[in-house]
Structures are given as C-alpha cells and as structure tokens.
Specification:
There is one protein chain. The protein contains 15 helices and five strands. By secondary structure, the protein is mostly helical. It has three domains: 189 residues, no CATH class; 83 residues, no CATH class; 96 residues. The strands form two sheets. Strands 3-4-5 form a three-stranded antiparallel sheet. The N and C termini lie far apart (115 Å).
C-alpha cells in the first residue's frame, strides 16, 4: 500500500491543477469584462461624438430635431384642414389615378365618361383643393407626429398625403384637358409643394414616399405639356419648381432618424420586429431573454458599432456627386452581405439602403429630364423650332445643361418625328435611345417626352 508520504505530493499536485484552472477562469472572466467595458466605452464615445456633431441620438432628441423656425406658419395644419374636406363620393372606380381607370395616351383626349367623372370629383373637392393650393404657399411644415415613440410612430398623414397628391394631379390633368394652362401649372406646382412638405421629416419611409410623389407629378406634368400650351412665364415657373424639388439632404436626415431608432431599440428589445429573413433564411424572433443574452455577450454592442459605421458611410455617400453614389452604395451593400449572420440585430435593422440610393437617383433623373424638357419647349416657343442640341438652351433657358445622375454626362436629348424626348440612361447605365419604361420592356431610360 501507498504510504502517507507518497500520497501527499499527489494531493498537492491535484490542488495545483485546480488552482491553475481557477486562475485561468478568473483571467478569462476578467478579460471578457475588460473587453465589454472597452466596447461599451468605445460605443458611448461614438454616440457622444454624434451628439457633439449636432445630430440626435435618441428618438426623444429626434422629435425635437424635426422642427421649423419658431413662430413660423406651419403648413401641416392647413393640410390637415384640407384632408378633412377631402371627399370620395360617386363612382371612384371610374377615375384615373384615384380609381381603377387608366389614362389614355398622353396625346389623346380623355374619354367623355372619364372627363365627366373627373369634373364631378373636382367639384366635390373644391374646398379641399383651395386649401391644398394654400398649403403650397406656406414655406415650412412639421407634421404633428411623435418621433419619440421610435418605431411605433404613427404616420397618419402619409395616407392623407397620397390622396391629396392624387387629387392635385387629377386637377392638373383636368385643367390641361380644358386648355387652362395657368391652372394646370398651378396644380402641378402645388403637387410638388405638397411633396416638399416631407423634406425635413427624418424618416426613411417618408423620403421614399416623397420621391414617389415626384414621379407621379412629373408624369402628370408630361401629360399636361402634351395637352396644353404653357406660356414662357408658366414654363419658367415650372422650371424653378423642379429645381427646388431636387434636395440632396433628405436621405442624410432619414439615415440620422434611423440611427436614433436603432440606438433606442438596443434599450427596448420589445420594439424589434417579430422576424426577419437574411439571405433567404428566417431568423428567429428576438424575445427579451434572448436579447438580454445577446447584449450580455457583447454582440449587440458590436452590431451597434458596425451599424454606426454604415450610417456614417451612407451619410458620406449623400455628399458625393450623384453619379458616384450608386457605385459607392453597391460596395457598401456588398460589405453588409459579407458580414456573418451571427450579427442578427444588424441584419434585422439595416434596410435596403443601397436600393434607396438608386431610387433617389431615379427621382433626380426624372426631375432633371423634366426640367430640361420644359427648357426645350421654352426655346421652341421663342425660336419657332426645336434646338439642335441642348447647348442652345444655355444661358437663356438653363444655367447649364443638367448632368445625368447615373453617369455624370449631360442629360440626353433626341428629336422625334413629332416632338422630342429628354432622358437619363437610368440605373442599367445603358443608353436605350430614350426608350420609355413599360411593363414589357426589360431595358428603358428615364424619359420626359413631348409629342407635338
């Protein structure tokens, strides 16, 4: 048998191993605690720097950031009055834009039945239209929404705006059909002004909606110029309106707003969406217990650091010349896709911002094509013929030929058998000769066409 003297060293050796394991465990715990403290400190420093730069970092701060000058008239209240006066009566389905009816080709007259339906609808909404034109004359707008509620904010005005924008566009088309060019121009400009009421709203969805309203109003303007003759003064006013509609700061404000919602979501996991799909895979909902564990191991803070990096870069992209933005945003999107799916929160709360950049460029292309098209028509009124090239419009009708936001070259122009087309080559970067977008065509340009 082993005597007591032989057993003692082995016992001491067993104690030494256990001590080492304890020390290693304590070291790991300490290292992890240090890692978490440094990460949290680094994140807080980033947040403090954002606030020092004049940006909000909480949804409560965002609500105060979305403001208009003190004592300035607020267009939102006049708009609310207009929305209360809006009426949808009669056979709405027979109306274009608002109902299910489709407008005829831009050069064709409205069918008698459609024109009668529009006439009745306009008459029913005379009071709302008078107020909407009044809204257009008010410079500042701050809708009464509570951004401090974060992702739970209720945007009731968005749906009301859609109906009122449709109403103004329908009125413009109706006036053009009756050859009332000044009234048609007023309705178009009021449509752009109503879209402008969203310019300062620091929300991603609000800016996408604003761009959609631009596309709709440009389409109505294109129809109007094909159905009535605008005067020199009216064309000049419309050109100024299109210039004012091009605002390059809107997406930056939207990114700042989304950043606040993200940082607030770190503190309130219940505000997170119930599920998300990443690379075709469904990611499980984040319940409170899982989220707290996710935060405890530092993954939430790591997500936040990456998110802030992406936001900074997207804000920088908005400051680039338009034709450089898509390439930069595509590269950033590729970087996001390369990030591991373990960064669940990042993938959950990063919307398709690369797509938003493309949508904005398409909106800019539409505004610039329309502006240039109006300048061509302005030239034709004075010279009695179309210009041979857009350079002839400078400086009398344009300060310079607008550039295509997709490739940086000048907006394109081509004479047609009857009239002309002004166009941008669009996001496919392919010059399709001014081919109009249709459901059937895979390739198209961003066009403004006058056939007369």
């Amino acid at each position: 048998m082993m005597n007591e003297k032989e057993a003692a060293p082995r016992k001491r050796r067993r104690l030494k191993v256990s001590h080492i394991l304890i020390i290693l465990l304590l070291f790991c715990v300490g290292a992890f605690a240090l890692f978490r403290l440094r990460l949290k400190s680094k994140l807080q420093a980033r947040i403090d720097a954002i606030r020092a730069a004049g940006y909000p970092v909480t949804c409560a701060e965002l609500d105060k950031w979305y403001t208009i000058p003190e004592n300035a008239e607020n267009a939102a209240y006049t708009f609310i009055d207009a929305s209360w006066c809006y009426r949808e009566s009669g056979e709405i389905k027979s109306l274009p834009l608002i109902g299910e009816a489709k407008l005829p080709a831009r050069t064709e007259s409205l069918p008698d039945g459609m024109k009668t339906a529009i006439t009745g609808f306009i008459a029913d909404n005379n009071e709302a239209l008078a107020l909407l034109h009044k809204v257009a004359a008010i410079e500042h707008c701050r809708y009464p929404i509570d951004l401090s509620s974060g992702s739970d904010v209720r945007l009731y005005h968005i749906n009301e705006l859609r109906k009122c924008i449709m109403l103004l566009n329908l009125e413009a088309i109706w006036h053009a059909e009756n050859d009332k060019s000044q009234l048609a121009a007023n309705s178009v400009m009021s449509g752009f002004s109503l879209a402008r009421s969203l310019v300062k709203e620091p929300l991603y969805i609000s800016q996408l909606v604003r761009m959609a309203y631009h596309r709709l109003t440009i389409s109505s303007l294109e129809r109007c110029i094909n159905r009535t003759a605008f005067t020199d003064e009216q064309l000049a006013s419309l050109i100024r309106c299109l210039i004012d509609a091009e605002d390059h700061s809107t997406l930056a404000r939207a990114y700042a707003g989304n950043r606040c919602c993200f940082l607030d979501a770190l503190k309130k996991p219940e505000s997170l969406k119930p599920a998300v799909t990443v690379d075709g895979k469904q990611i499980s909902p984040m319940n409170t217990t899982f989220f707290e564990l996710y935060k405890a191991v530092g993954l939430a803070d790591m997500d936040a650091m990456l998110y802030l990096d992406f936001i900074d870069r997207y804000i920088e992209i908005t400051k680039l010349p338009p034709h450089q933005r898509k390439k930069a945003s595509d590269a950033l999107e590729a970087r996001l896709e390369s990030i591991s799916n373990i960064q669940i929160l990042l993938h959950m709360l990063m919307p398709g911002w690369s797509k938003a950049v493309t949508i904005e460029l398409r909106s800019i292309a539409g505004l610039r094509s329309a502006r240039t098209g109006l300048a061509v028509e302005h030239y034709r009124l004075a010279a009695g013929k179309l210009p041979d090239a857009l350079a002839a419009l400078v400086p009398a009708y344009l300060d310079a030929v607008p550039t295509d936001p997709f490739d940086g070259n000048e907006i394109r122009y081509k004479k047609l058998e009857a009239g002309f087309v002004v166009y941008s080559i669009g996001e496919d970067l392919s010059d399709d000769g001014g081919k109009e977008r249709t459901k059937e065509s895979p390739n198209w340009d961003v066009t403004f066409i006058v056939e007369r």
